[in-house]
Amino acid sequence: MKIADSTTEYSSCRSLPSRKYAEVKYNLNHSFVSTLSSLSFSPVSFFYSIMFRLKPSFPSLPRSRLYRSFSGAPKRPQYKTYFSENPSAPPRPPRRLISRFLGFSAIAFFAFGAGLSFQSFRTLNRIMAAPIPTNEETLSAYQAPDSLSAQIDETLRTHAEAEALRANPDFTEARPHHKIPETLRARSLTAGTLAGPGKIVVPPYVFSERDGKSMVSLMYLGSDVCGHPGIVHGGLLATLLDEGMARCCFPALPNKVAVTANLNIDYRAPAMADQYVALRAETVKVEGRKAWVEGRIETLPTDGSAPMVLVESKALFIEPRQAAVSISPKVIWNSH
């Protein structure tokens, strides 16, 4: 009976102010505990007295539920959490194939550009840091690896053609292959790959006329640069003419450098291996950044006989527009 009266009294006091409501709620709880304590069943009285006097550590204990049910406190809202493995959760839309392709392409392009820039910077740094020898220093830089190479080098150095050009004050003597830094010389085609015993046996002796008017290069071609057995490959002759004529016209251009725009080759006779040859070039016309050069390769007899023309060539060389700001004369070894 007391429980029913207390419930009626509690329901009638719900509209009181908050302070009065707290006092009434305390009185109701106290009266409810007193009623349970007066029961003859002592275990129940002891249990509820403990539950209403101790503060539980977790809100899920029975005391909290009983307290909310008898005190009229609002119930806590229930929340649900959906995990990724929940099949009822909405699936995440997959990335498009084109997006993945563009992403990986951008990463690959960035990595390639960074690697290329780093390698170019290292190469340029090595080039700029390496000292470039003078023309006189290149003449004594070559060390023959064997007796045959030493004999060929001595023959070229003391040849009548070399002596005549050396005595001409308008010509400057040098060995341009030794102007290339040793660390980079092995990567050069004519100074590295095609140089050595059996190939271009010794570095050529180059005599350049002032202002890029003409040039003469004396060399020896071995037996390991042949196309047909015993005949020097025509591609090697074209390469030698391309480099030789370019070296001839470099001093005549504003920034001492140019690229090949046109090269015409006329083969006149087979170039036999294991013989001395002379490359002769002449700058015939210069207009601004353009230079026209004519050249030929002929035999270099050691017995005083007349030379024979093996191949003739005409070429047009053009200086790049960016040469004044992007190319330093220090790195143009062959132009000196």
TrEMBL record:
Q: Which residues form the Thioesterase domain?
A: 230-299
Q: Indicate the transmembrane segments per the record.
A: 32-54, 101-121
* One Pfam family in the UniProt entry: 4HBT
InterPro entries listed in its UniProt record:
HotDog_dom_sf, PTE-AB_protein, Thioestr_dom
The UniProt keyword set, sorted, is: Membrane, Transmembrane, Transmembrane helix
Q: What is this protein called?
A: Thioesterase domain-containing protein
